[in-house]
Amino acid sequence: MVRSDAAPAPGLRERKKAETREALRSAAARLFAQRGFAETTVAEIVEAAGVSPRTFFRYFDSKEDLLLPDLAASFDRLVRELERRPIEEPPLVALREAVLAAVANAPQTTLIALAQPFAGAEAVVTDRLVYAFVQLEGRLTRLLAQRLPPGPDADLRAAVIAMTAMSAMRAVVRTVRERRKAEEVPVGAFARLLPTAFAVLAETSADL
């Protein structure tokens, strides 16, 4: 006979934790988009997610942590996608394909956060985005250096490619956020504009 008070299996426990975290992320993204960041309270987020305030603070330190809830995980996914690309691919092509694959599988909460200009939180979002992109540039530079022929300037070339690609991504983020201030822009606009941004990079490189 199975005891009713038996502890759940680790797999089930982890799934429940993931479900709770996702419920909080989704509720926050929805409320931020509807009401604005400044007007949304933690109490409203937990009510929408169906959890207690104590549960909220087991997962997040503050509502600011929910502005870009899955960004780190999405950037980790980008790195993994780049590691999977064929080594013979040109570095910028490999990075472009890795970015597109990562965004195609990114959680909707991340794309909503990137596309949404949150009133009252622009400075926080900008600071976190800048820091996150700088950190990612370093990781990508090290991976790209492994794809380049050895030479005295291989590290510089890798850094230029990584920073150029990240600049294209930042340009897409800025464009979508600026457009949303004036008009309704679908979440899918972020993923849709990325190929255009990389096409501009390719055209610019060809002209140099």
UniProtKB/TrEMBL annotation:
DNA-binding interval(s): 41-60
Record-annotated HTH tetR-type domain positions: 18-78
Keyword DNA-binding tagged: yes
Keywords: DNA-binding, Transcription, Transcription regulation
Keyword flag Transcription regulation: yes
Origin: domain of life: Bacteria
Transmembrane region(s): none
Molecular function GO terms recorded: DNA-binding transcription factor activity; transcription cis-regulatory region binding
Gene3D superfamilies membership: Tetracycline Repressor, domain 2
Designated name of the protein: TetR family transcriptional regulator
